[in-house]
From TrEMBL:
Domain of life: Bacteria
Organism of derivation: Algoriphagus jejuensis
Upper classification of the organism: Bacteria, Pseudomonadati, Bacteroidota, Cytophagia, Cytophagales
Protein name in the entry: SMP-30/gluconolactonase/LRE family protein
Boundaries of every SMP-30/Gluconolactonase/LRE-like region domain copy: 21-264
Record-stated family: Belongs to the SMP-30/CGR1 family.
Length: 297
């Protein structure tokens, strides 16, 4: 499925989920399942890889983020609050919140660093320029702003040596590189690592492979693109039969399966008829594996 000659990247299957805004993919090794969310519908999907059985749970909130917590529980980003969710009892325990007076705001993308701290961004549902922020939330559950003046706080990734943090504010069409101080969680801007040309859409969710290359989902770009953050070079891509590709993560026993989320939003009726798999998720085999996600404290 790649345009690059000699590439072996290919979509191996799709999972019909028809999300309005699919996002937040997570591999849960303990359950051998992929999770993802439909933000606007408040749906949490769990797809067991071996049996291909998909289960849906619903929450009366915008559900933007699913992370793995301790003891097999999940951490969910619901509207502007974090909650711990027990998959067995379905009990929801509220943890903390941000921007409580800003009713138009919600969480967007979130990840966990190697120290178990949650990094999670916000945006205005009106997509107001500069309205969003990126927060770091540690064990004390006190959110601390790390970046402000963001519009669509999005993809995040860390290098294996924990010295570099990559971050996307989608409308900038840039992947920015920050120096990362693992002990304190401090970040300092180094440079723009990747500039996405307009014909390839907008960078959205992101993950990193074991060669340090970034896999970036391109909203409006019909694919996932593999970028070299050291040179800014485009290395490869997975083409998908949908325009709006939103996020991706590594999973499977060998961490060489890429689960890719997509969206139906901002598509006309005619476009949805032309791209009927919009909102589904796709699974692709890749030659370079990624990493397991970290557990939130």
């Amino acid at each position: 499925m790649s345009n690059n000659e000699g590439s072996e990247l290919q979509v191996i299957t799709s999972v019909p989920s028809q999300c309005f805004l699919g996002e937040g993919p997570l591999w849960h090794a303990g359950r051998k399942s992929f999770f993802w969310v439909d933000i606007e519908k408040g749906n949490l999907f769990e797809h067991h890889l071996a049996t291909e059985v998909t289960r849906t749970r619903h929450f009366p909130h915008r559900l933007a983020v699913v992370l793995e917590g301790q003891e097999g529980k999940l951490i969910l980003g619901l509207d502007r609050k974090l909650a711990r969710f027990d998959l067995e009892t379905e009990e929801l325990e509220w943890l903390c919140g941000v921007e409580e007076a800003l009713d138009l705001h919600r969480f967007n993308d979130g990840k966990v660093d190697a120290k178990g701290r949650i990094w999670i961004g916000t945006l205005s549902t009106k997509f107001t320029d500069g309205a969003g922020s990126l927060y770091r939330i540690g064990k004390d559950l006190k959110p601390e702003v790390q970046l402000s003046d963001l519009t669509i706080s999005n993809g995040m990734a860390w290098t294996e040596d924990l010295k570099t943090f990559y971050f996307i504010d989608t409308p900038t069409r840039q992947v920015r590189e920050f120096a990362f101080e693992s002990e304190s969680g401090g970040i300092h801007l180094r440079k723009v690592a990747v500039e996405v040309p307009s014909e390839l859409g907008f960078p959205d969710g992101m993950c990193i492979d074991q060669e340090g290359m970034l896999w970036v989902s391109h909203y409006g770009g019909s694919g996932v693109y593999r970028w070299n953050p050291k040179t800014g070079e485009l290395l490869d891509q997975i083409d998908l039969p949908v325009p709006h590709v939103t996020s991706c993560c590594f999973g499977g026993e060998n961490l060489d399966t890429l689960l890719i989320t997509t969206a139906q939003e901002n598509l006309s009726r005619e476009q949805l008829e032309k791209y009927p798999q919009s909102g589904d998720v796709f699974l692709a085999k890749v030659s370079v594996p990624g990493y397991r996600s970290n557990l939130a404290d």
